[in-house]
Amino acid sequence: MHNSTTPNRGRRSHHHRKKKSTKGALIKGMSERLPINLLDEYEFRQGLKKIMAGYAGVYALYRGKRLYYIGLATNLFWRLHIHTRDRHRGKWNRFSIFRIGRVRYLKDIETLLLRVAAPKGNRVTGHLRKDANLSHVLRAVAKKQARTLKRIRRIIG
Question: Comparing 7 with 103, which gets the higher pLDDT?
């Protein structure tokens, strides 16, 4: 029997609220790798236009299982359609789409993906603000550490 003097073992106190999950705050939908020939199907095109209405997205193009290209688009169907006719034609046969809820971060997401995956078909790797590139800071730290180690070696012989 539970009364006011019994300890609250194994239960959450009403003072400790569970944090609300942020899962799904950015990615509002995605597809697995779909075959390119779906883009020729009228019903699929209409469905894609409908589910992407009001959303921008990131897309990935694949040749078989290998990632070929990453891009972003405000009109996903049109962008995929263009890639069936531009310099990428014949170089990919599957695609994935990611519906993004916060367009504000779309370019940063593309840059992140391009820098991590470095797909063969992308010419540009995306740009960062100058102060966002930490490489120069890390090089300075490495130089300082090297000088410190050199000084210690001289001292201890």
Answer: 103
Of 35, 32, 24, which is closest to residue 97 (Cα–Cα)? 32
Taken in order of first residue, the domains within the chain and their CATH numbers are: 27-128 (3.40.1440.10)
Answer whether 65's CB lies under 8 Å from 32's CB.
Answer: no
Q: Please write the tens of the pLDDT for every residue from 73-98.
A: 888 888 999 999 999 999 999 999 99
Residue 26's closest CA among 113, 126, 123?
113
Beta strands in the chain (DSSP E): 27-30, 34-35, 56-63, 66-73, 94-100
- 33 within 8 A of 95, measured Cβ to Cβ: yes
Give the predicted TM-score (pTM) of the model: 0.67
- In sequence order, the 6+-apart residues with CB closer than 8 A to the CB of 128 are 111
Tokens representing 114? 């391009």
